[in-house]
Design goal:
Elements: H1 6-14, H2 16-19, H3 29-50, H4 57-71, H5 76-80, E1 89-90, H6 92-101, H7 108-118, E2 126-127, H8 128-136, H9 168-178
Antiparallel strand pairs: 1-2
Length: 179
């Protein structure tokens, strides 16, 4: 049997010189500067997203529902891989990874609210099925086939991020002006 010299074989097949010609370089100084500007803009936008502080749990759920509705995501698909025994529980780290896999960007404050609401019987587990049921209400009500006459209301996707409420003095001034 003749042995094959793979280095010679690859050099003959690929013709490296033809592929990597110095004249055909794609990168020049203008492209590099444009890339840096784009990355800087992207980082600035992402920093703004993570500064959002929710007022309550319904703000976070509303934001997640809105995203899953727009993207038509069934969020439970991302959690099933972490729950091999189908117990309905995952660790907080697995919960966070599954949410990140959906490409929903949440701040630490938002995760804290979710963890506090959906923690399991012990602090080491979280109830992912209950979380998914809450989020999936944007599509349909669970177990609707058991009660077909049930009036289904649209799940809330409204949020109050950044809303500043009036204090008592400001409310009194508004009432005085309106009357």
């Amino acid at each position: 049997l003749d042995e094959v010299n793979y280095v010679d074989f690859i050099n003959d097949v690929d013709q490296i010189e033809a592929i990597y010609k110095k004249e055909e370089r794609i990168f020049n100084l203008d492209n590099v500067e444009e890339f840096r500007k784009t990355m800087t803009m992207k980082q600035n936008v992402e920093k703004e997203i993570f500064k959002a502080k929710p007022g309550e749990l319904q703000d976070v759920l509303g934001r997640i529902r809105e995203y899953t509705k727009q993207q038509r995501i069934r969020i439970a698909e991302f959690f099933r891989d972490f729950d091999k025994l189908r117990s309905g529980f995952v660790t907080p780290a697995q919960f966070r990874i599954a949410v990140n896999m959906t490409k929903i960007h949440l701040s630490n404050d938002e995760y804290r609210l979710l963890i506090a609401e959906f923690k399991g019987p012990d602090d080491l587990k979280m109830r992912w099925r209950d979380f998914c049921d809450e989020v999936d209400q944007v599509f349909t009500k669970k177990a609707l086939e058991k009660d077909p006459e049930l009036k289904v209301e649209q799940a809330s996707t409204k949020t109050s991020y950044g809303v500043v409420y009036l204090n008592e003095r400001e409310k009194a001034i508004c009432k005085e002006v309106c009357d």
